[in-house]
Amino acid sequence: MRLAVLTDVHANREALEACLAHAKENGAEQYAFLGDLIGYGADPAWVLDTIISYVAKGAHVLMGNHDIGVLQEDRKEMNTTARYVVEWTRNNLSDFHRDFIRDLPMSFQLEGCLFVHANAWAPEKWEYVDGVMEAARSMNATTAPITFCGHVHTPSLYHMNQAGKVGEFTPVPDVSVPLSKLRRWLVQPGSVGQPRDGNPAACYAIFDSLQQELTFYRIPYDAEAASQKVLAAGLPPSLAQRLLHGG
């Protein structure tokens, strides 16, 4: 099975459209969306409607911290900008959208792999995997040989050998990586809708479960259009600039 793994879409219609089109062209047979479907961007309803249409065809979807934020009154853990956008997003969603979000799980397993938004040790606490220590903690919290997670907006690949030593690998786009069964793996595809590594191109990955190969992709899209929508919606200008500069 060729599984497209997309995370941190953040209500960016243009980026999601580009990634879904690319995934289809590259033989994706199934889709997994790892949370933070909304927040920051200007098209939350369109993004949710699109992902809901994929769920109807068998896609899997997780809850992210920005998703659950629209259901909560108290969001003290979020910064001022994120809280403002969450409130704006809440006011631009229907009851149908909110019900869909409310039913999303914190994790799921597919093809023997674990899928979470933030980490495997406490998915509901939204702690980041942003280094080898956190990656080791996450991999040690599950028996799954491969864990896919989002939350971090930069593509990364961690691996653990049989002695428990963890290393980090910076993936090269369009180059397949064989995931040896002699190691354990933690995959961060990067963000579809708001990359933060200095490259504005959207991120996602395809996992071929038959070949045990993973390919990361960077997909150029109309970031200028997405940025202008953020400004037109009255959202913070810093979010518009972030789309243009990938940071």
UniProtKB/TrEMBL annotation:
CDD domains: MPP_superfamily (cd00838). One of its GO terms (molecular function) is phosphatase activity. InterPro entries: Ap4A_hydrolase (IPR050126), Calcineurin-like_PHP_lpxH (IPR024654), Metallo-depent_PP-like (IPR029052), Pesterase_MJ0912 (IPR011152). It holds the Pfam family Metallophos_2. Residues 1-208 form the Calcineurin-like phosphoesterase domain. Signal peptide: none annotated. GO terms for cellular component: cytoplasm. PANTHER family: BLL5683 PROTEIN, METALLOPHOSPHOESTERASE. Belongs to the metallophosphoesterase superfamily. YfcE family. This is Metallophosphoesterase family protein. It comes from Undibacterium nitidum. The lineage of its organism: Bacteria, Pseudomonadati, Pseudomonadota, Betaproteobacteria, Burkholderiales.
